[in-house]
Design brief:
This protein is an all-alpha fold. It is 67% helix and 2% strand.
Length: 581
């Protein structure tokens, strides 16, 4: 029998038909080298999955309704379909149910997906398992878009909420795709895969959040304090900022010398932030610094007062001066009274002169008198004398403020606010007269609790500038010292003989000595502190320093925190705006 190249009853094989084998080999080689089309790409498969998920979402209500109706139809068919007899079986007659189930309902997911396939939004699925994973994950993401948007509308952090929902959806899709690879066309396996994928994605999300923000701070007040001190340029350790006791113990154990240096640096930075409120640029509140700052402030009052006179028509100035003197006289024996106080009262009275049909105190006389009264008040330690002098100064300022021109009124009020801050600063500085450092505790005692910018700065400093514990985490240091030695010895043993193990252990021991030092340097370095204390996934009360998206929720609770300012600098701006040179 002659050989024939093709037997219609039997599919040909390569050995039976060499020409067909050559053709198939060439076709396969050409197909392998064929460039990938867009429809086969990861992007197209992923977008096809997203669009397919959207189609399922849009058609879901109709599919659900059709499914419920089909359940009823199935029950009716069981009751209404006549039983198939033996004669029917012999005759080959099949009794069809009287009611037909709904297939591909109008408005269902199949209709939407067919339409998107017709316009090219959904491409055929490939045989590549990795692309099938991408497509299935995209399908879950598409199906979750509307629920995600609803969650975003109610969330305090919409972007974070959306990222979480989409991550969980992608995890469910990957789990379902994995289950389909292991057990194709098994809906129960796919359901289990979705559940396991969602759980795994949730765990990965929590781990990722922990890696991004290792020590999240939940207290809005603490977040506000963190931002305020950071804005003031006060360097805190990550443990101080976050309040995490374990991290504070590690910092103290691994970087003891640096911690002491950081504490001294913080004290100077805090003092500098406080002095800024009075327009003083210094890191120590020494007597010389305070005197120079007060003289500069007095110059600002003098400049404003020199352009304005005090009208004495209402008699309020004389009444307040008299009350100040009477209060002082009642609390002090005549022999102990300061003659300068009498002299200032007399000078204020004799400075009154007639002008324009009334009586006034010339602005230059006010400026000179106010400056000398204030300097004496700041130099004296006697409480009664200081109180009387400040009452005289306050009476002069009240009288001047009520007579100022419109262009000077705002500048004068800023000057008085700076003067009040200066009094608080001076009181706080007296608690450390030799070093000139102002502590948060001293400032808190001097300032009125809860009122003013200085009080808020004091509260923030006291909350975060806590001394780090000493020697509370020796296990960390021992671990960092032991692991390199053990690792060096083990590596030396496997790389050589006993001498290699000894040399490796010696090198590891050196590493063990250096490891705690290096770790301490790392966690107290600026990048280390910035990373460990970052609140990217928590948020900044003002949203201004890269804390993250929580700012809007916290802004209302911390809106009273104002930035550091230079009052005298602002005075000059206000006077310039008023056209005063």
């Amino acid at each position: 029998m002659a050989w024939v190249p093709f037997d219609p009853k039997q599919p040909p094989t390569y050995s039976e038909d060499p020409l067909l084998a050559i053709y198939l080999a060439r076709a396969q080689d050409a197909n392998a080298n064929r460039p990938e089309t867009y429809g086969e790409s990861y992007l197209a498969q992923g977008m096809s999955g997203v669009n397919g998920g959207i189609g399922k979402l849009l058609g879901g209500p109709v599919d659900l309704g059709a499914g419920l109706i089909n359940l009823g139809i199935g029950g009716l068919n069981l009751m209404l379909t006549p039983e198939q007899t033996l004669a029917d079986q012999i005759a080959g007659i099949r009794r069809e149910p009287p009611l037909k189930p709904i297939v591909d309902p109008v408005g269902g997911s199949q209709m939407f997906n067919r339409f998107m396939a017709d316009v090219g939004a959904i491409t055929p699925e490939t045989d590549d398992p990795s692309k099938q994973f991408v497509r299935r994950a995209g399908e879950e993401i598409g199906a979750s878009i509307v629920p995600t948007m609803a969650t975003m509308s109610r969330a305090a952090r919409p972007l974070a909420a959306a990222a979480k929902e989409l991550t969980l959806a992608a995890g469910a899709g990957i789990g379902a795709a994995t289950a389909d690879q292991l057990a194709p066309n098994n809906p129960w396996a796919e359901l289990v895969g979705q559940i396991l994928g969602t759980v795994s994605a949730a765990g990965a999300t929590r781990l990722g959040k922990k890696l991004v923000t290792p020590f999240p701070v939940r207290d809005p007040t603490q977040l506000g304090a963190m931002e305020m001190l950071r804005r003031e340029g006060i360097d805190l350790s990550a443990g101080q900022q976050t309040g995490h006791k374990g991290l504070q113990n590690i910092e103290s154990e691994l970087a003891g010398a640096q911690v002491a240096q950081l504490s001294e640096q913080q004290a100077e930075q805090f003092t500098q932030a406080v002095l800024k409120r009075a327009g003083i640029n210094a890191s120590r509140a020494t007597k010389e610094v305070l005197k120079a700052g007060y003289e500069r402030l007095g110059t600002a009052f003098g400049d404003i007062g020199s352009r304005n006179d005090i009208l004495l028509a209402d008699g309020k100035l004389g009444k307040k001066l008299g009350e100040a003197y009477q209060t002082y006289a009642k609390s002090t024996a005549e022999a102990d009274r300061l003659p300068a106080i009498d002299d200032f009262i007399i000078e204020a009275v004799t400075a009154m002169k007639s002008k324009g049909g009334g009586h006034v105190i010339d602005g230059s006389a006010y400026a000179s008198l106010r400056t000398r009264v204030g300097l004496l008040a700041h130099e004296t330690a006697d409480r009664a004398q200081k109180s009387a002098l400040l009452d005289i100064q306050r009476a002069l300022d009240d009288a001047m403020e009520s007579n100022l021109s419109k262009g000077d009124i705002d500048a004068f009020r800023w000057a008085r606010a700076a003067d009040r801050d200066f009094s608080i600063i001076e009181k706080a500085a007296l608690q450390d007269p030799s070093g000139g450092l102002i502590s948060p505790e001293a400032l808190q005692k001097a300032a009125v609790a809860g009122q003013g910018d200085l009080a808020k700065l004091a509260d923030s400093g006291k909350a975060l500038m806590t001394p780090l514990p000493s020697g509370s985490a020796p296990n960390v240091r021992n671990l960092l010292a032991t692991v390199p030695a053990v690792a060096g010895g083990t590596l030396g043993y496997y790389m050589g003989d006993a001498n290699g193990a000894v040399n490796g252990a010696a090198i590891g021991a050196l590493g063990g000595v250096a490891a705690p030092y290096a770790a301490g340097r790392a966690i107290l370095s600026k990048p280390g502190r910035r990373y460990l204390a970052n609140q990217v996934l928590n948020g900044s009360p003002s949203g201004s320093n890269g804390f993250g998206p929580l700012g809007a929720m916290l802004a209302a609770q911390t809106s009273q925190i104002s930035p550091s300012r230079d009052p005298l600098g602002e005075l000059s701006v206000l006077m310039h705006q008023a056209g005063v040179n």
